[in-house]
């Protein structure tokens, strides 16, 4: 093994390639699983410019989550717009379609989307509690039109079961009143009656699916009020390491033949 690594290093030096240090352990090598979600606008709700990507590395009940989001509502009552976000689950495991608008007011509310994605199981807060009871705590939610989020949290059994069972869905809430349907500003939120529907209605949504990637795609979203810590692209480093090792083994065989 040491000879192979040495040969790889020699080849790398000959070709002018950087020699990689020891690769960080991925979720796969540590016995866990990586999941990803592509977050797209919820139909009818007028957030067509919003999008996001989320990566969740699950090892037992420990989840390391990284996320980029952009194009969301930027301000609310003179401050950055708070975007509460959650892992929903236990239902159909999908994002709602336009048919979820049960009262035909042109808006899909959080409760109207619940048959598709289920109730709140875990709150993706920047700090503090992550239970369903923390689901509307705007003080600990990411905020602004764009944000990067990174946090490791402990999940309860219901959330782990939903993730492993394929029914977990990521939902980011909060609509831009300028582009949202009229009902978003004229109706009261069923979650927080003191606020309009725009404050809590789902903006972007994505199903969590098993992934082979090691980190969330970087770029696209400016740093906002979410967490700032990122993760290395384990997948790319692993591929580079395998190519490097393969080149070293090939060179060693040719040397031996000669």
List low-pLDDT spans: 1-29, 219-258
Provide a count of the helices. Answer: 6
Question: Main β-sheet: number of strands, strand sense, barrel status?
Answer: 9 strands, antiparallel
The count of domains is 1
Per CATH, the architecture is Sandwich
Going by helix content, strand content and strand pairing, the class is: alpha+beta
What name does the CATH topology carry? Answer: Immunoglobulin-like
Mean pLDDT reading: 80
- The percent of residues in helical segments reads 10-25%
In N-to-C order, the SSE pattern is: HEEEEEEHEEHEHHEEH
Cα distance, first to last residue?
Answer: 21 Å
Q: How many β-strand stretches?
A: 11
Radius of gyration computed on alpha carbons: 22 Å
Overall shape = globular
> Under the CATH scheme, which class?
Mainly Beta
How is this structure best summarized?
It contains six helices and eleven strands. By secondary structure, the chain is α+β, with helices and mostly antiparallel strands. The chain is globular, with a radius of gyration of 22 Å.
Walk me through what this model shows.
This protein has 258 residues and is an alpha+beta fold. It has one domain: Immunoglobulin-like (Sandwich). The protein contains 6 helices and 11 strands. Strands 1, 2, 3, 6, 7, 8, 9, 10 and 11 form a 9-stranded antiparallel sheet that branches. A two-stranded antiparallel sheet has the order 4-5. Strand 2 and strand 3 form a beta hairpin. The longest helix has 24 residues, at 234-257. Residues 1-29 and 219-258 have low confidence and may be disordered.
């Amino acid at each position: 093994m040491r000879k192979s690594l040495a040969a790889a290093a020699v080849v790398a030096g000959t070709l002018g390639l950087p020699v990689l240090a020891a690769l960080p352990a991925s979720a796969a090598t540590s016995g866990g699983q990586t999941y990803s979600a592509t977050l797209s606008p919820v139909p009818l709700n007028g957030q067509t410019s919003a999008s996001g990507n989320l990566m969740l590395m699950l090892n037992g009940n420990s989840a390391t989550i990284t996320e980029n989001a952009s194009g969301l509502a930027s301000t609310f009552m003179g401050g950055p717009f708070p975007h509460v976000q959650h892992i929903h689950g236990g239902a159909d495991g999908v994002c709602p379609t336009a048919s979820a608008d049960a009262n035909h007011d042109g808006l899909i509310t959080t409760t109207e989307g619940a048959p598709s994605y289920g109730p709140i199981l875990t709150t993706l807060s920047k700090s503090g509690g992550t239970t369903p009871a923390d689901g509307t705590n705007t003080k600990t939610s990411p905020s602004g039109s764009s944000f990067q989020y990174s946090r490791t949290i402990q999940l309860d059994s219901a959330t782990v079961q939903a993730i492993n069972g394929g029914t977990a869905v990521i939902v980011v809430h909060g609509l831009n009143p300028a582009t949202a349907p009229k009902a978003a500003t004229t109706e009261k939120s069923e979650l927080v009656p003191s606020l309009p529907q725009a404050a809590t209605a789902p903006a972007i949504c994505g199903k969590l699916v098993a992934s082979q990637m090691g980190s969330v795609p970087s770029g696209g979203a400016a740093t906002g009020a979410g967490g700032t810590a990122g993760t290395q692209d384990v997948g790319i480093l692993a591929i580079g390491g395998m190519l490097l090792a393969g080149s070293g083994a090939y060179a060693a065989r040719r040397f031996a033949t000669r």
